[in-house]
Amino acid sequence: MSSPSGSEAEAVSNKKLAIIFKLLSKGELNIAPVIDHNAGVRYPYVEKSLNIKPEEASKLLESLIKEKVLTKNLYDKVFACPRCESVNLSPKGICPSCGSFDIDKKRLLEHLKCGTKFVVNKLFEGTKPVCPKDKTELENHEYRVLASWFECNVCKKKFDTPEVGVHCLNCGLDFKAREGEFKEIYSYALSDEMTAYVKKLGNLRTLAEGLTSIGYDVHFVESLEGVSGGKHSFDLVAYKVEGKKQIRVVIDLYEKVEGEVDGSIIISMFAKVLDVKPDKAVCVAIPALSDVGRNLAKQYNIEVVEGKNSQEAAEYLSQKLA
User: Which residues contact residue 313 at a Cβ distance below 8 angstroms, ignoring those fewer than 6 apart?
Assistant: First the structure.
């Protein structure tokens, strides 16, 4: 199988980011399936979020499993056609002796008032059986069911329980229930590995919104080719035209729950910046960068933006790049 083109790979990446952003914006971290007996298993949340077809949504979710963005959990098992795997099925009772679907369910009733016993073929909820002796429509409390059974109109056999037959409305196959298969249905959730990344994406979105408001075209998690021919990924790459020149700014975000961000990250960032040679390079540290890191950044001509949270950092970043 050939590798996807650059545009195809970018499209997949954009869809991946779009899903995660939608999950974040709605506070929904689980993607549940819906059983559509015409279309099969669907994921409307993904379809609506990305404006894609049901089959595209399923393929995308499975691709995100391979990328370890999502995990899947068994949600349900549904009965499926053994030939085409469709869940669009119509069940029916059939005679266990001859296989005919022409069977009836019969009940022996007793009219409690007059003691008359009689057989009825159908007794749906709300149906009032009529006593053949006094022609009275009977309420539930006026009769009792003495026995029930099934009877085949073809071979005339009587039996307690019909066999379940199934007709596939997709391919037309008729089969017995014991010949069918079970199909696993999965729900999807963000993987453990993605937890920190999801938080980072939310903060990157905040930074990007600030840059967009001052005229930058911002790309998420973009891979740039360096002078060496190697590829280097940055959390954000911001573009802006000033006069006849396009300014390119690379931005990496580093966070630490407690204390300061370690200064060694500047060294790894500088290696990328040296090869890519952007117009500006910015390290965003939340809540702060260590003194060693600030000194290294100054030495390597990397701008530093700090903030106690992403909102504050976004304000300082926009001020610096305005």
Answer: 203, 206, 207, 284, 286, 305, 306, 307
